[in-house]
Design brief:
324 residues, five-stranded antiparallel beta sheet, four-stranded antiparallel beta sheet, mainly beta
Length: 324
């Protein structure tokens, strides 16, 4: 089992037009602080190469920050008329897809940061997007209680499924891209075949609206969370709850597995990020960013954990492996 100590890279102090401030320290709850947006940050996601971090905000923009240049902002995407609830890099890191409360998704070139396509098909706010690992497309979900599979090159809708009786607030693809997991206000985590859109199974156990769902990188586990302040780690094979975790004290929005699958991070309105040991269900660490959390994302190498915060900031925690 991997053990981690908490550390921060020295000398990362920079200011960019009042938009970017990085603070470092050495205490366990210190973090790199990026003042990323003027309003709440709703999503964070790393590029495949781990260099770039893309954010989405209630200010209607998505922005990209460069970890190799003191987390300087290198790109701003400004074409949605409402909140950008999620932004993700496509495989290859030369495109970014954004999902917005204006009901649309958009594709952008990177690093040119130019709009290259618009995806219309939802009839209400779009809450989440998950990219297929082969880069051929992605799936999205929204408040119209549907999820849609898209062809990323043609903007064509491949299928549209009315999957829940309530709004769908999050979705994720299995690592091999064969299964879609959705999380809804009907308290259900549901699994769907990526090729056909057919229902596979639903998992019950939550007692409130679901807001976050993620697969582990090896596909063995699914984590879900929501307004019941509970995190559930499911065995993806048996579809049974492995751990029911109840240490948060307010509504939750985000879960994220570390790349090695050993740790799960969770966060929400109680202003705490809890790291859990996936095998035992025990707490590994707790971070206090001082703001509500809306999304969590690990870098592909596991060195960084980024948190999207409601105060407009992104907190980035840096890890050093002591034993593997």
């Amino acid at each position: 089992m991997s053990q981690y100590s908490f550390s921060l890279k020295p000398g990362l102090i920079s200011l960019l037009s009042g938009l970017l401030i990085i603070i470092t320290g050495c205490r366990p709850n210190d973090s790199i602080l990026i003042t990323a947006h003027d309003e709440a940050v709703m999503s964070v996601g790393f590029s495949q190469n781990g260099r770039y971090l893309v954010t989405g905000s209630t200010d209607g923009t998505a922005r990209v920050f460069d970890s190799e240049n003191s987390w300087e902002m290198v790109c701003e995407l400004m074409a949605h008329s409402s909140w950008v609830y999620q932004a993700e890099f496509m495989p290859g890191d030369n495109q970014i897809v954004t999902a917005s409360f204006d009901g649309n998704l958009k594709m952008w070139s990177f690093p040119l940061c130019e709009e290259t396509g618009i995806f219309r098909g939802h009839t209400d706010r779009v809450r989440a997007v998950s990219v297929h690992p082969d880069g051929t497309g992605f799936v999205s979900c929204g408040w119209d209680s549907t999820f849609i599979r898209w062809n990323s090159e043609t903007t064509e809708v491949l299928f549209r499924v009315h999957g829940h009786d309530e709004k769908i607030c999050d979705l994720t693809l299995s690592p091999d891209g064969s299964v879609i997991a959705t999380a809804s206000r009907d308290n259900l985590v549901s699994l769907w075949d990526m090729e056909t859109g057919l229902h596979i199974a639903s998992m019950t156990g939550h007692t409130g609206d679901l807001k976050g769902v993620r697969y582990s990188t090896d596909g063995r586990y699914i984590a879900s969370t929501g307004f019941d302040s509970t995190v559930i780690i499911w065995d993806a094979g048996s579809r049974q709850a492995k751990h029911i975790l109840k240490r948060h004290t307010d509504q939750l929005f985000a879960v994220a597995f570390s790349p090695d699958g050993a740790t799960l991070a969770s966060g929400g309105n109680d202003g705490r990020i809890i790291l859990w040991d996936v095998l035992t269900g025990k707490i590994v660490n707790i971070f206090i960013p001082g703001s509500g959390i809306r999304k969590l994302s690990y870098s592909p190498d596991g060195n960084y954990l980024a948190a999207a915060c409601t105060d407009g900031s992104v907190r980035i925690y840096t890890f050093t492996a002591l034993e593997k």
